[in-house]
Amino acid sequence: MLGYFTITTNLLVAAVFTGVAVQAASFKSPWLIGGTLLSILLVGIVYALLLRGLRELTAGSALASFLLHQITPLLTTIFWLTFVRKGALKWRDPLLWALYPLGYFLYALARGSIEGHYPYPFINVTEVGLPRTLTDASLIATGFVIAGEALVWLDRRLATRKTV
What we know:
The protein is mainly α. The protein has seven helices and no strands. α1 packs antiparallel against α2, α2 (30-51) runs antiparallel to α3 and α2 (30-51) packs across α7 (130-163). The longest helix is centred in the last third of the chain and has 34 residues, at 130-163. The chain is globular and about 50 Å long.
């Protein structure tokens, strides 16, 4: 299961919010929560745009999919909007946050080449080829960074609204 970005990112959310719950200071970082939010939003958006409906899910699998792809991104967004200090994010942060999905992409390609199974159809080198896989990954990465910049903009906008 650790071959899926959905699973690793939901584990990241669980770890970060466990740290928040036990009031560990480093886990309350707007930078860490912002990057976690952006990553789980990537999970939800990619699922909605590229993966929904590709497999017929049974009751338990459908519930797990709903929780992992829709509820977790929604609740993380609500938490960020409601409880995270605004105005702390920097314009370079999305590039640093992008290291996580880039690392996952390299891991998924390496694991897929060894096992002969790729977790997602848009990075399945065997079926779509390396050029298409790299194009797909580049488009997703570009969308991730643009969404990250939008998150920084919103963070700054919300910070100025509260002080006015």
